[in-house]
Amino acid sequence: MRLLFITLAFMSSAVFAQDSKNPYVLEVDVSRVDKRIQVEASYRVPMSMCAAYGFLTDYEAAKNIPGILESKVISRAGNKVQVERLIQERILFIPIEIRSVVEYSENLNQSLDFYQISGNTKYYKGTWRLTNQGNMILFKYQSVFEPNSLMPNLVIEYFIENSIYRRFERMAENAYLYGQSQLLTCK
Fold first, then answer.
1. Which of 24, 36, 46, 47: CA 20 to 30 A from 185?
2. What string of DSSP letters covers 5-40?
3. 25: phi > 0 → left, psi -120 to 50 → alpha, else beta; which?
4. Residue 81 — pLDDT band, cuts 50, 70, 90?
């Protein structure tokens, strides 16, 4: 009986340790380039390319990511989609709202290129790339933005760096759940 208890305790601690690892191989890097802040992130999710692309282009579902309060498609023409977003950041306990209209150029099952058309940041541009890695899809994100704030970029960079990992972690979790819901539709 004692041996059984020790074995179960060891096995449950091993399962707990496995769950606490980074299952999506999430990597996030925030750096400063002159007056702009660059964000690079990647994660891997077991899903089909069709489901991964569907996840990225479900613009209104972005509301499920911490900090994104609103996200709605305002126009669609060909492979161009304009999305209006309201994001809230907390920097030094001060809520900062960022409104923007971003235009996405969709490249079917491959990538999204985007840039800010209007909003209250000075500059925002980036890409999402999808790479098939067998039974996993690599999501790769790169963006550069320039805040329009009285706060020093160093302070903004610090707080973004500390909140952005959690956002990409949630994106990876949401991508996994989306992929599971698309098993019969996307093959």
1. 24
2. HHHHHHHHHHHHHHHTS-TT--EEEEEEETTEEEEE
3. left
4. very high
170: tokens are: 């949630």
What value, to the nearest 5°, has the Cα angle with vertex 103 and ends 99 and 104?
A: 125
Domains of the chain: 22-181 (3.30.530.20)
Which DSSP category does 79 fall into? T
The residue behind tokens 């399962």 is: 15
Contact of 65 with 173, CB cutoff 8 Å = no
Residue with tokens 């994104």: 68
Residue 104 has pLDDT above 70, yes or no: yes
Which tokens sit at 154? 């160093």
pLDDT in tens, 17-61: 334 567 899 999 988 888 888 999 999 999 999 999 999 999 999
Locate 55 and state its tokens.
């996840």
